Amino acid sequence: MANALIRRLEAYVRLSADDRKALLLAAGEGIRTFDARRDLMREGDEPRVVNLILSGWACRYKTLPDGRRQIVALFVPGDLCDPHIYILKRMDHNVGAITPVTAAQVGRDSFERLISERPRIVQALWWHELVVTAIQREWTLNIGQRTAYERMAHLMVEMFLRLQTVGMAEGNSIEWPLTQLDLADATGLTPVHVNRTLQAMRRDGLIELAGRRLTILDMAALKSTAMFNPEYLHLEHEGAHLDANE
Length: 246
Hints:
This protein has two domains: about 5-120, Jelly Rolls, CATH 2.60.120.10; about 135-235, Arc Repressor Mutant, subunit A (Orthogonal Bundle), CATH 1.10.10.10. The two termini are about 25 Å apart. About 40% of the residues lie in helices and about 20% in strands. The model has no long low-confidence stretch (mean pLDDT about 90). Strand 4 and strand 5 (about 70-75) form a beta hairpin. It is globular and about 55 Å long. The longest helix has 27 residues, at about 120-145. By secondary structure, it is α+β, with helices and mostly antiparallel strands. The chain has helices at about 5-10, 15-25, 110-115, 120-145, 150-165, 180-185, 190-205, 220-225, and strands at about 30-35, 40, 50-55, 60-65, 70-75, 80, 95, 100-105, 175, 205-210, 215. It has a four-stranded antiparallel sheet. A four-stranded antiparallel sheet has the order 2-7-4-5. The protein has a three-stranded antiparallel sheet with strand order 9-11-10. It is built from eight helices and eleven strands.
């Protein structure tokens, strides 16, 4: 499961065998499991560990006092939930499991030792965080400018590519555990609007949703609908000049 992190980081730079070994060692630390719909970390908690998602889906979310929720990020295997979160005195957001989740909780000392001894990993993490920020910008654009249909199409393509990068796509199909309420909270729509949008996408022959799996029937049309430009994911090994020596 920890290989997902290596595949994620090697989408940006190439790591040495020793770098990979160090990551596998860190990913074996403090492994915990969380039931679906349980929080890994809560707003107000003192963050002491870096969470690495090994299996399952999780999300970063904020809530209003009346209980309304906004999902501001999705995490899948290989994702780090804020690599330097432990610098904060208190959490200013929540991280919750959407499905059952297995996470490595890497302690501050271990994480700081990893980045002090492995400069190539530091460079890879810079890329990782730049991509996280780019994804956040794209999500803001989705909510501010794209229609409901375009938002849903964009989210589906993004998650497909992110899962494909870590070897978790089967053909044009991926796991899709998001409920209509999750999708509403991630896209700024109502559950009713989400339902109508998904029905329209099915009628148009773009997708198939069955058994918690999403199959993209026409990838080119879905990308065109979303006006999807994959450059913000930076998956073209752009850090080639940072390649490690074997």
